[in-house]
Amino acid sequence: MSSIFISEFISAPALALLRNHHQVTYEPESYQQRVTLIASLQHVEGLIVRNLTQVNAELLAAAPNLKVVGRLGVGLENIDLPACAGRNIKVIPATGANAESVAEYVLGAAIALSRGFLPATQQTLAGTWPRPRFSACYELAGKTLGIVGFGSIGRVVFQKANAFGLQCVAYDPLLTGDAVEIGPNQIPLLTLDALLARSDVVSLHLPFLPATKNLFSHLTLDQMKQGSFLINTARGGIVDEEALAERLRTGRIGGAALDVFESEPAKNLSHFSGLENLILSPHIAGVTVESNERVSLLIATEVDQFLRSAS
């Protein structure tokens, strides 16, 4: 039996699957106790993490028998990929398993922003009956959604948005050609500049890389259509928060929904204080009961099969 350590939350069925074939240590809060965590990895062959366990050189040095790292999610910023490759350690992300949840979040956030649900709630509770103001909102149907990053999640966003009546365009530096076919539909591929100038809503689905760090700086934000919305469910470091806050205050950007932040857990978001045209959430766009089950079972299955085939 192989030894597996799980340092963050995994679903009960996935845990049971692993325990059928392996010796599993499940300590879902251990990422907070770094010294204790590292001391527990000497004989571990499999490690399963979310995004808060830093799988860096220090941790890898403490796990000389490690063969595989399962990531309960898709972002790999917390995993030192070159170091893993140098040790021939397999890294398995849960690609596509949370796409439905993220796509629903994007459409829900777009609707909430376009209809002003949050400020309407606050003002109605205050007794102002702001019917004239919120009767002047616009429908999303017929508007343009720009999808920045057209991988597995971006494609599900397109399918849902297309069914909702949005006109969709995409930008992805890894794709060539003028369009991508998704089933019976096509989505035009544009340059980033052209997408920003055309889109009423911009949704980000890019990885955090040196090339995407602060990609949405003040310069990029100023290329967006006047009064358009920005939705970021990708990674916080892609958007300059201070620059975004300034443009939300002036109305240059009509609204934003941020599920990810430059630093997580986010402790100081004072630059966003007092903004009505803003939705914030604690990195949960891809985390629902259903998606967690899919992610957990996918990673448990992949790690189980890898270790059994390697033994």
What does this structure look like?
With 311 residues, the protein is of the alpha/beta class. The protein folds into 2 domains: 2-94 and 289-310, Rossmann fold; 99-280, Rossmann fold (3-Layer(aba) Sandwich), CATH 3.40.50. Helix content is 35%, strand content 18%. It is built from 12 helices and 13 strands. It has helices at 12-19, 34-39, 57-61, 81-86, 99-115, 117-125, 131-134, 152-163, 192-198, 218-221, 241-250, 289-310; strands at residues 2-6, 22-26, 46-49, 68-71, 90-93, 144-148, 167-171, 179-182, 185-188, 201-204, 229-232, 255-258, 278-280. The strands form 3 sheets. A 6-stranded parallel β-sheet has the order 7-6-10-11-12-13, with helices on both faces. The chain has a 5-stranded parallel β-sheet with strand order 2-1-3-4-5. It has a two-stranded antiparallel sheet with strand order 8-9. Strand 6 (144-148), helix 8 and strand 7 (167-171) form a beta-alpha-beta unit. Helix 1 (12-19) runs parallel beside helix 12. The N and C termini lie close together (9 Å).
